[in-house]
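Predict the holo structure. Ligand: adenosine-5'-diphosphate.
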Amino acid sequence: MKSIIAVFTVLTAIIAIWYIACVPMNIKGVLDGAERAGIEVVPETARERRDMSEIGLVISNRFAIDETWSQDRPRLPAPHQVAVELWETTVEKKITSKRSLIYHGQVTLSATLLGFAIGTGLGILLAVGIVHSRVMDMSVMPWAIVSQTIPIIALAPMIIVVLYSVGVQGLLPKAIISAYLSFFPVVVGMVKGLRSPDHMQLDLLKTYSASTAQGFWKLRLPSSLPYLFASLKIGIAASLVGAIVGELPTGAVAGLGARLLAGSYYGQTVQIWSALFAAAILAAALVAALGLIERLLLGRMGVKT
Amino acid sequence: MNMETTTQAPEPQATGSQSSAQATVIEAKNLDLTFQTNDGPVHALKDVSLNIRKGDFVSFIGPSGCGKTTFLRCIAALERPTGGTLSVNGMTPDEARRQRAYGYVFQAAGLYPWRTIAKNIKLPLEIMGYSKTEQDKRVEQVLDLVELSGFGGKFPWQLSGGMQQRASIARALAFDADILLMDEPFGALDEIVRDHLNEQLLKLWARTNKTIGFVTHSIPEAVYLSTKIVVMSPRPGRIHDVIDSTLPKERPLDIRDSPEFIEIAHRVRDGLRAGHGHD
Ligand SMILES: Nc1ncnc2c1ncn2[C@@H]1O[C@H](COP(=O)(O)OP(=O)(O)O)[C@@H](O)[C@H]1O
Ligand SMILES: [Mg+2]
């Protein structure tokens, strides 16, 4: 009960700050519009207003405060504007509509999931190799680290162009960018997890003359699961980012990234923000789903949670 | 209780010698082990010679760092001696391990938290390829042996420390090893639990006729349990004294107040003190 109150308080504070921030952010736009509509504002011309602080403008034009929360194309849309847009483009639109966020979300989601699957599979394979082979440990790990230092925004267009030139387009290039971002946390977490059994546990298996494969299936893999799940949660969020970034350079027409891009072309800030929120909600849902799977699986394994 | 040991466990590598009750199981001759560390060589074992006969209960006692663990690990082929010879069941330790000559009990129970007690005991059986029905049969047997019947379905965290350690002993008993190596198995437990487990261990030893190598640094524990007490001293780790116990095989807990017991304990303590004096 106490924690619910705390969460609610924080949420209320964030929304309040957001509303307050809308006022100075949007005041100039509102006043420009009002001037054009023949309403008297202080000071009268846009040039004079440009040099004034937003706070000063708000104080001298208090009548305009309401307007800052209901503009068509505000610099910063108010929470309820985003909420209304989200509602209209999800619940009230048919899924097949090009304006439906569900439609765009599902396009991005399929690239995310495919990329996540590729990235996770690759990450686990690399981790198994790294843990069992010194050569792989020394040769693969540095490259995996280097791969993550290249900004994805620079790499994404190259990946898409290269794949396009060999005739691969659509879902796969986006999924590959997704996989590129998500394999790394999986490798790191999985290597740590597979190495988590201590000396005593490894010695115990040695006293049974267990093979490497038996050690892997019976000890290393089960020990690694908590680590793996922590990585998967990071990995799936990274996958979503990858899929969205993958939609930007192609000028894709579908997907949350395409929505973001289209919104910024046409100054549709409300659309941008609602796409951002859709992405955040999607990411939260994916992480929560993984958390649920983790709880079920580890619970079945008898791990006390 | 019967003084005679009930030998129901079949001998996997019976070599035909009927007088196996006296046979040497573990034989160390001039064993040396030097660890190469960053701070230079550490002489963990020096010139260690020891015979352990079938059915012996041998305790290794000495201050920490005197090589007790290292010696046990050499027998288990977890460590390779740098000099001397060591044979287990007439084989090299490596061969003996492949023939499942011993079960090893570590200081910590080390049960897998994701496996129930029964599944933990099955771990070595799965690895060694026992059939499902055989696995179930043996789990029942050894759970009974360590008085944990009915706890097979519990997870380790549902058991007390003493029960977990008993489960780990059951795990070491599940396959037909006739040697049991235990490295301070009760070191982390409180005195009362320890007394109880010592009593149980003696009964278990009598019932199974195993050869037991037991590391401890408690004098009463060593004297109470052993037929042979090996007193070791450190830097370099070596055997200072070997005491053959004159106590009868059947030992109620209050035997610890008997003059015989106290005399042996004295000899152990003197040995430990003299060993320390070398520093
Ligand atoms: N793997 C190892 N590497 C280096 N030194 C070791 C290793 N294992 C044990 N030693 C050293 O060997 C000596 C004997 O250790 P150990 O057998 O563990 O003693 P104990 O069990 O009697 O306390 C100690 O000085 C210890 O530091
Ligand atoms: Mg030790």
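Chain A has a mean pLDDT of 89. The two ends of chain A are 21 Å apart (CA to CA).
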